[in-house]
């Protein structure tokens, strides 16, 4: 049994991970720490486990094997480096950290300690992503020229996102770094890392972070990636477009199905692609890595690249210019 401590209930997904840990046959929640002691004590009481007001005290305990980190994003570096150095396996919400420098410090601590780390990038494991990858592997779209992924909801206009999700210091950004993470890592998965990023942010509701965002990724091949996210849109379906010199793939506009049309298929109609089963969740993969002493190499590389792209997007939006990835401070 892997004994897990919950580190903070700041993030809206913290209770989702709580339920995953409770439901998994090989994990057990045994402790809680929170940067807000009242929230942490209340949560620990609900879970019927001890609350630790001091993080160092929790991490020093030999009867805790692993941690789930849901602190404010600006605390990730300090909390995760401490956890890794204490020998605790780490499962964390995206993004790992808002800057490449902080991510590199976390990853160095993880490597040096040998703990197992996995980042929640859930859409990597969804059936539509697996189906898109299978189509790309067949080469029926030819050379890829454009990928567009959009994910948006009305969390700012309908008022259901917690107020701290609009705190620039804690979050490191708004719609793009939170919701836009998903289309960003999917675009990275399909096209690879770009040379540069150009981002534009909108402030529809007047918050201190953007609630409407677009990032454009430029590639040496001439390909373009378009990442769209927002907190101000009702009934905006999650959608994926992948275009190439020989064909196009579309998903989710508005129905959740994949259609493909390719010159290589010698057909004059769109074909529907069968969706496979979902892959194991990021949490299940984390447990497996702990049990089997393996490393989540693809997950961690995509998570590191996600921070690169987010940092470049923030710098671009702030400066009004395109930002090359090689400009980022490692």
What would you say this structure looks like, in words?
- The protein is α/β, with parallel strands linked by helices and 330 residues long.
- The protein is 35% helix and 24% strand.
- It is built from eleven helices and 15 strands.
- It has helices spanning 14-23, 37-47, 55-59, 76-85, 100-113, 127-138, 168-171, 175-178, 181-191, 282-292, 297-319; strands at 2-7, 27-33, 51-52, 66-69, 89-93, 117-120, 144-152, 196-202, 212-218, 224-230, 239-244, 247-251, 258-262, 271-273, 323-324.
- It has a nine-stranded mixed β-sheet with strand order 14-13-12-11-7-10-9-8-15. It has a six-stranded parallel β-sheet with strand order 3-2-1-4-5-6, with helices on both faces.
- Strand 12 and strand 13 form a beta hairpin.
- The longest helix has 23 residues, at 297-319.
- It is globular and about 65 Å long.
- It starts with a strand and ends in a 6-residue tail after the last strand.
- The mean pLDDT is 97.
């Amino acid at each position: 049994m892997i004994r897990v401590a919950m580190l903070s209930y700041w993030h809206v997904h913290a209770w989702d991970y709580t339920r995953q840990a409770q439901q998994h046959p090989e994990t057990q929640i045994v402790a809680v720490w929170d940067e807000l002691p009242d929230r942490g004590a209340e949560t620990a009481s609900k879970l019927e486990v001890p609350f630790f007001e001091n993080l160092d005290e929790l991490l020093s305990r030999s009867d805790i094997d692993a941690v789930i980190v849901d602190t404010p994003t600006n605390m990730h570096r300090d909390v995760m480096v401490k956890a890794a150095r204490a020998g605790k396996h780490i499962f964390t919400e995206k993004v790992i950290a808002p800057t490449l420098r902080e991510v590199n410090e976390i990853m160095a601590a993880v490597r040096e300690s040998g703990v197992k780390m996995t980042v929640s990038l859930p859409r990597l494991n969804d059936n539509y992503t697996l189906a898109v990858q299978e189509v790309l592997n067949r080469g029926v779209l030819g050379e890829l020229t454009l990928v567009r992924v959009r994910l948006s909801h009305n969390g700012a206009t309908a008022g259901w996102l917690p107020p701290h999700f609009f705190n620039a210091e804690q979050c490191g950004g708004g719609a793009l770094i939170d919701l836009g993470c998903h289309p960003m890592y999917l675009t990275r998965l399909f096209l690879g890392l770009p040379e540069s990023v150009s981002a534009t942010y909108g402030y529809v509701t007047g918050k201190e972070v953007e609630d409407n965002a677009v990032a454009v990724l430029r590639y040496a091949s001439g390909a373009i990636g378009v990442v769209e996210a927002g907190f101000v849109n009702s009934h905006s379906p999650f959608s994926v477009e992948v275009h190439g010199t020989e064909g196009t793939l579309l998903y989710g506009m508005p129905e959740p199905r994949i259609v493909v049309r390719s010159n290589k298929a010698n057909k004059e109609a769109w074909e529907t692609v069968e969706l496979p089963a979902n892959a194991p969740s990021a949490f299940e993969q984390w447990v497996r890595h702990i049990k089997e002493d393996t490393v989540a190499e693809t997950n961690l590389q995509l998570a590191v690249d996600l921070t690169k792209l987010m940092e470049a997007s923030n710098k671009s939006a702030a400066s009004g210019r395109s930002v090359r990835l090689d400009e980022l401070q490692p």
